[in-house]
Structures are given as structure tokens and as C-alpha cells.
Amino acid sequence: MFSVDGFDWPRLTRDADDLLQRLFPICRSITGNGVRETLSIIKERIDIHVGEVPSGTTCYDWTVPDEWNIREAWIEDASGNRLLDFKYNNLYVVNYSAPVDAVLSFQELREHIHTMPELPDATPYRTSYYNRTWGFCMEHKRFLSLSRDESYHVKIDSSLEQGSLTYADLIVPGTSGKEFLISTYCCHPSLANDNLSGTVLTALLAELLLSKKTFHSYRIVIVPETIGAIAYLSMNETAMRNLSGGFVVTTVAGPGKHGYKQSFLGNSLVDRVAYRTFDELGVDHVIYPFSINGSDERQYSAPHFRIPVGTVTKDKYYEYEYYHTSLDNLSYISAANIVGTLKLYASCIEKLEMNRSYKSLMPYCEPMLGKRNLYPKLGGAVKQNVGESNDHYSTVYDCSPERVITGEDLDAMGWLMFCSDGRTSLLDIAERTNLPMRLLHMTAQRLVEHDLLAEVGGPES
Ligand code: ZN
Predict the structure, then answer these.
(1) How far away, in angstroms, is 225 Cα from ligand 1 center?
(2) Which of 176, 194, 300, 333 could form a disulfide with 307 if both were Cys (CB 3.0 to 4.6 A apart)?
(3) Cα–Cα distance between 181 and 264 in angstroms, integer?
(4) CA of 288 to the centre of ligand 1 (A)
(5) pLDDT for position 400
(6) Cα(137) to centroid(ligand 1), Å
(7) Is residue 178 within 8 Å of residue 307, measured between CB atoms?
């Protein structure tokens, strides 16, 4: 069963940093070589399937567009001085710009320039996927320095041709018959929190899941946002309708607060394990109710699929000042923050894995614990130490017969014996008692060994 124990978090932080450095400069979009290169770097670490969906493929109400690739782009003044060059920042070009090579007046050029006067040092991120045009983005400061009397030579050497959309997926197989989704998007160019952080976290989480046996199956999906998720759903409709829930991993490494965007249900299994994770680990966070604006949960939770999908974030999209600007760069985020949020996702999954229901084999009254060595020798001497520590990442409960029974153990045994009617899950008991899932899981195992409980399989989600 998957648990968060035994991982080398410092190594994972170094790996996250290495991935950030390699992936950040790549110019990604919803199609093209940037996504291919990104996925091939991830494939060096995990054996993920990389697939292609040809341009023109119909996916429900959408069509996969022509593939976009770009080689160079710049603006020069009349003397040939280069005023802006894509090679220094891929946000300088409107993503999906059509090719252009022309000499324009300032008035003509300004129609194609996007800036953010409110953040004059930032270059905005703009896209034009389905409306064929071209454009440049730049710092408002730089725009103000352009002479109004000059003519400008603009060049964008891009192509929009029949090609394909690239995505990746991987199934981590389990035995429970339940499958959960972990999806992220990889279509943004050099933007760190949104969403290189999510892509890197997802790759590392896949690696952690693959390194242990899991009870449930996990479907890891890395797609360009919106069109990629829609294409993926249309290609995997039957399998996707069977999913029990999932997460869309996005904006996980900024300096701001952790947050949780609820699934459309708000009380699905994934929501509940997320709430327990934040509570048990004592992580301060903001709750964002489900909203129809956001990421690919919109597609995954559409009426035909209705997968409850939540998002654990750190500095959620829309909420931070540098969102969709060049200031969302590698100095805005950190590898340590990625790994901090990775632990939260891993802890959510650990709870999904531990969540079972049991049936009491001694349902008449409470069992006599003393004769099974499950009660302290001296009655009344037990210290009630519930809530003594909230560091349940690192707590490995000692399950040996010599273990000293604590007040917390007695509480866990009492509640488990009381609640185990075959329908009440460990998560139900954790919510009711505030006892950590790990303690309940370990204690349930012990009660099974003593023939006091029998597992009846995972609860209905
Ligand atoms: Zn975005």
C-alpha cells in the first residue's frame, strides 16, 4: 500500500530544481515541439506513454488545430537595431502567432502590441489559438520608449501546419478496482507557477506512485489545457467515465498560501482526504469553492463524466499579482515549495489508500482488551495524549506487540470497535474523532490480527 514514508525528500527537491531549470526555457503551446521536448525530458524519469492526436481530429465540439512551431521573432527599428527578441523571452510573442515579415508604422505596429500598464516591468502572456493573427507582448516601459515617428521591421518565423497535439499518460495499476485521475497541463511557455510547477510535481508524484505497490489505480495525464483534456476524454471515454475522482495539479509552488479548490461536489472522497490532510498536518490554507472558471476540472466534471476533481495549490492561479506575466518566473517559485505541495498530494493519496471499512467480530459489547495485551496493565494510568503531535508525515506507528499502549491507541481501538459495522470507513471515523488516519489504519490492522475486526473492502465513494 502506498504511504508517504521512506522517500528521500532532499533528493526530490534537487530533482525538482533540475527539472525546473531544464524545462523553464522551452517555448510550449497547445501543440508543437515545445510540448514534445517537455514530455521527452519527463520520459527520461518515468516510463510514460507519449501520444499524438492529428490536427483536424474532431473531439466532441472541438477540432485539434494545426500544429504551431516558431523559430525566431523580433522587432527592429529602421537602423536595424533589435528592440525585442523572442530568443530572450518566449512570452514576447503572442502564443500561436501566424508568420509575418513586414515594415510597419508605429500606428500599425501598436495594434499588435500587448502590455500591462499596471505592471510596467512585466510582459503579459497572451494566446491566440483559434483566431489566426499575430502579435508581440512587451513590458509597458519598453513600449513607452518606442518612437512614434519611426517605422519598424517585424518578423515572426512561425508555422501553422497539419501536425498533431502531443500528450502523455500512464496508468499505475492497483488491485481495488477503483481508479483515480491525476492530471496537469503542459501548454504554458516560460511561466513557472502556472504551470511548470504543476507539471514537475505531477512527474515526481508519478515516480513516487510507481515506486510502491498501490491499492487503487492512478491515471497520470499530462495534456495541453482544455483542447488536450477534451481530446483525451474523447479518446478514453469509457475508462474516464469509470474514474472515482481525481486532482488537477496546478500552481503549486508560489510564495503565497496553500489552497484547495473543491470538486463540484465539495464532499467527494478526494475533497474529504484533502480536508483531512490539511487538518492533520496543520497546514494553513484557503478553501476555494468549485467554480466553473479554472482548469481542466471543467472538462473532467462535465455531465457525461462527472469526475469529482479537486486541486491542491500554493498560490492559486487568478489569485497572485504575477499570474500570466513574465514575473511568474523561476525566482517567484521554489523547488522546495513544489516538494512541500507534493507531500500534501502524497498524503491525500495515502489516505485514499488507507481508507477501508471493517466489520466488528465482537459486536455484542466492547471487547476485553486486557486479555489480549491491548490495555495498559494499570487501569487509570493512561495519559490522554490525543493531538500531542501533528507531524504525521514522519510518524511511523510502532505496531510491535511490545508497544506501550497510549491513550490515543485506546481511543482509536474504542472508536474502531464501536463504529465498525461494515459500512463506516476509516475516513468517516477520522472525520468524527479527529484521530489521524495513520493511527486508525495501524490500529485497525492490529485489531484484525487479534480477530476483533475483519476488512470488508473499500467503502463506496
Ligand atoms: Zn494559465
Answers:
(1) 8
(2) 300
(3) 15
(4) 17
(5) 67
(6) 16
(7) no
